[in-house]
Every structure is written in C-alpha cells, then in structure tokens.
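B., you asked whether I could sanity-check this one before it goes into the benchmark set. Here's the sequence:
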Amino acid sequence: MNFLDCIRTKFNHVKKSCREEGEGHRVNLRGLRPNLIVKADHILLDEPSCDCIIFVATTKGIRVAVVELKGKLKDIHEIVDKFRSTFKLLERMADMCGENGPPWDILPIVYHEGIHPAGTRELKLSRSHVTFRNVNYRVIAKGYKIALSQVISKFS
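And here's what the prediction gave me:
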C-alpha cells in the first residue's frame, strides 16, 4: 500500500474540498488536482488543529499544504499552536504509513479574509515558523482569492 492510500485507509476523515464549516470559507483549488484532503480538525478533536491537510503528488514528491482558514487574522499564537499540533498529526501519519515514497515539501498556509490595520499581524505571522522533523517551515498568509496552485508554485 502506498503512502497516500495508507493515510486514506487509517485516517478516515477524507474530504473533496477544504472548507470551514459555518463560515463558508474554502480553499481555492482552481488549477490543482489534490490526491488527498484530510480534515485535521475532525481527527484532533481535543486539541487545536488546522482545518485541512492537502496532499498533492508531483514528479518532485508530495506537496503537503497544512491549511488554516480564518476570518480576520487575530491571535497569531493561536494559529501557530494549531500548526504545531497538526504537524504532530503529520508525524503520526508518517510513522504509521512509512515514508518510503517521494520526499515531502510542507507548506503551512493561513487563508484569511483580511488583515488587521497596516498588515502588522500578517507581518508577524510571516516571521512565524513551525518545525517538522527538524526542518523549520515559514507560515504563509494569503487571502482566500489566491489559488492553492499559485501558492504551491511560488513556494515549492
């Protein structure tokens, strides 16, 4: 069983899109065909977590977008905590399903409606990092209209 099939089997919260329940916010998947979308917040019920983990297989390996959907950017520490717990879930997925496939490229992304005055919150967020297997990943903040395919091509 390959890595993505293993995740699909062992973590049964697979969805067709990444959207925030109640708010109606969603990731723009235009120009992208995700291999797998997992609702992380349905798996990590007792701790803060990001909304979705989107896996996209490419010729260079697996691109993993860890996505948090927000209205206005408010508490940066809360957002970083959500990424940290979701990265622990990624670690669990890697351990359970083995990493004998292509390498991962992880993109922690916050999609939001707007930025607090003068963009200060986005600036602080862009300086935030989350670690996965001793590699630091910079948190990326983007508006909802930006397609995930654009973010992947710019930051991969």
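One thing to flag: The chain has one domain: 3-155. Otherwise nothing jumped out at me.
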